[in-house]
Amino acid sequence: MTTTTTEKITTQSSPLIPRxxxxxxxxxxxxxxxxxxxxxxxxAPDEKNVLQVWVRNTEKEDDRKVTADKKTGH
Length: 74
Description:
Layout: H1 19-23, E1 29-33, E2 39-45, E3 51-57, E4 64-65
Antiparallel strand pairs: 1-2, 2-3, 3-4
């Protein structure tokens, strides 16, 4: 006589990753160091969440925005 056991498989849904995390702007990205090592340039959103190019002195925190795009991607 053959006995079969049926196991009930339950699946749980994993929580969804928020769209902002997947498709939103990064905090900072694409860092580049100047040839003399004095400056760091990177891309980050401004106060309106539009990506801009920023530059800072590597010896102090003096981040400053050097572009003024009105919309991301334009």
